[in-house]
Predict the 3D structure of the following.
Amino acid sequence: MTILGIETSCDETALALIETHGSGTTLECRVIQSLVHSQAELHSAYGGVFPTLAKREHGKNLAPLLEKTLKDLPLRGTITDQQFKDVIGSFKVELERANPDLWESLSHAEFLKNIPAIDRIAVTEGPGLEPALWVGINFARILGALWGIPIIPVNHMEGHVIGSLLESDTANGAWQKLKKLPLPAIALLISGGHTELVKISDSPSSLLALPDPTGSHTPYSYAILGQTKDDAVGEAFDKAARLLGLPYPGGPHIARLAHEAYIEKIPAPIKLPRPMIKSGDLNFSFSGLKTAVLYAVRDEMAKNGEKLSDAFKKGLAYEFENAVADVLDSKLRSAIEKSSARSVIIGGGVAANHILRARFEKTAGEYGIPIFMPSRHISGDNALMIALVAALDEKLPAGGRELRANGTKRLG
Ligand code: KG4
Ligand code: ZN
């Protein structure tokens, strides 16, 4: 089966193509293509993702990115000029109003008259920014209608979970098996929008081979054990970075400064709090940490002629990263113990962080259980993980379920 994945939940426009054999836990796949067009630089001027801009950029980028993605894929046939006009025309009124940029690029996309050898289209339906999600969904609807291909809606967070089970994310055409996930597993999902601890178990619907009423038929079921009460961890990295005068997205910049502090043995200028570390539950809170960074920066500016020295920035970045690592690691340990977990998954953009990865690896080692983390390439948003979730699905959705963006869609 060949699957096209579409991801537009935030500020990455991403498309991927995979080929698969089998399904569920015995799935084998090969990555044919995986392209990510990041808008981060554009959003950087706003200090965070600006939804209207994200929507416009997705609308402009999707068609050219699709042409590149499909470049070497065999064709299943062609549609006539008239068929193209009829199908595209049936979306005109809706799209011209809702997604003028997408309409503009699709209405002239001659390459869409070639029907690629694709069996399914997988698209992120949520969670994420709704205006951005809608662009991907509308794009999928049009492709589905033009080519007569079914569409599978995918939960973005499940994508971050399953993406961690890939052996290799390179589009080299090599076949691979997904890594086997001993259950129950604990997933720690850490991104710009989410901080969640999730328990993964066998899906009852997959055991009974019954369709799942939520529309998903992957072999796993999910229960959220804890989540952030305010800022997500990636958001905290981004806000702390902004206070230190670093560009968006701030996570990689904080990580770089923290690493320099470590190499240069620069001490932390202050001790930051470890919010909710002793709360006894599995929830998180990161807004207090950001406020503590704000006060530290303000005090230092007042003392230092309204300037921040490089040593201060590095030392504070290091302490910030350690505070985050302490909190995440402590909650991860509790979740492993409470659930008698047999494996751990780390997913989401913040999983690119070296210090956090090393900490989680050590923890899993201490509990004697395997840990699965995405390669650093696909820890951020991508469509490969979205296509993979659709590949796990043994059956097509029951049908009749309306495709809608769901900004607050939850796992489980
Ligand atoms: O999963 P993702 O790409 O997008 C969302 O779904 O949110 O995550 C993006 C987040 C941003 O907040 C970014 O600053 C953070 O991941 N991030 C990092 C690192 N690389 C990206 N945070 C800490 N250390 C990193 N190396
Ligand atoms: Zn994400």
In short: The chain has two domains: 2-170+378-392, 183-369. Residues 207-214 have pLDDT under 50 and may be disordered. The two ends are 27 Å apart (CA to CA). The pocket of zinc ion (ligand 2) is lined by residues 156, 160, 191, 348-349, 381 (CB under 6 Å).
